[in-house]
Amino acid sequence: MFFGNFIRVAMLLAALPATGEVPPAARQQFEAGRYAEAVQTLQAALGQDSKNAALHHWLARSYFEMRDFDKAVTYAERAAALDPQNSEIRQWLGRAYGRKAERAGWFSGFSLARKTRSEFEEAVRLNPRNFSAQRDLIEFYLEAPGVVGGGKDKARRQAEAVAALDAAEGHVAMAAYWEREKKHDRAAAECQKVLELKPARVEPYLEIAAYYTRREDPGRIQEAVRVAAAVAPKDPRLNYYRAVARVVAGMELEEAERLLKAYLASVPDRSDYPSHPAAHEWLGRLYERQGKRDEAAAEFRAGLKIQPNRKSAREALEKLGQRP
How far apart are CA 99 and CA 84, in angstroms? Predict the structure, then answer.
């Protein structure tokens, strides 16, 4: 992937809002995960106001969450044409290009990857404090080949630029850099510095929780969640990480099951939250720990139904001796 699955938390309104009004019903439908309904509401509004950049932008966002990246690109391009100086719009156009690139052939994929980089760079130029766009750009530099503009040196320089603007965000960015370099002692040190700074935003803490989830370190997941809960106690992502910590530790599995099922039932599947396929996979691992092989396989398949190319779920099924 050119810039990852966004299991990191993207700040929805990190930049200036798109120009124009959006029907409140459309935003409510989007926030509830009813993306097809949001599309209908936005399309009806667009019929009355075709030059409204915000309508095009939120149509792009809705199609993005529906994984229709062709339409996401179409509407994001229209939004950018109408409001080219908007950092948030340019960032989401870059994301749409990036996800479309993942599905394209090599020639088209390279062209789209270059466009992805260009849009992320422009989003950062327009608003350097759009830290969500900064992280997208850094991740692109870390993951993309040099032929399309990737490079570890670029990533490190960008992380240093972020640190000059915001110390906590800079440490989060450097943690991502060191993780990519497989220098986890340095990544962990950067995470600890974030905790010491005690930022007032929840996102850096959730970045740390996501990192320690990848490292399967339950104690540090719990530490990040504890601090995050003091900042945003009602954030729905906290219970996901609480459940993951329990599964990894092999403790309080009934509570972990309850939390994961509640997350799947009540939290929309969206690109800036831990994904539903990931939640299904953790449920599968939980059932494996309990010796419930059929239930585990069912959860792995549920994740694959949403995300067919999810390698870890396929490998988990193979481990169980079952087919996807």
Answer: 21
3-state secondary structure of 70: helix
Distance from CA of residue 161 to its chain's centroid? 22
Mean pLDDT of successive 10-residue stretches along the chain, which has 324 residues = 36 43 94 96 95 97 96 98 97 97 83 96 97 96 94 96 97 96 96 96 96 97 97 96 98 98 96 96 97 96 94 94 83
Nearest to 153 by CA among 166, 163, 167, 138: 138
Residue 287 token pair: 């059932």
Predicted TM-score (pTM) of this structure = 0.88
Tokens 């391009």 belong to 77
- The CATH class, in words, for 236-324 is mainly alpha
> 313 is written with which tokens?
């779920």
| Contact predicate 91/118, CB 8 Å | no
Cβ distance 319 to 285 under 8 Å? no
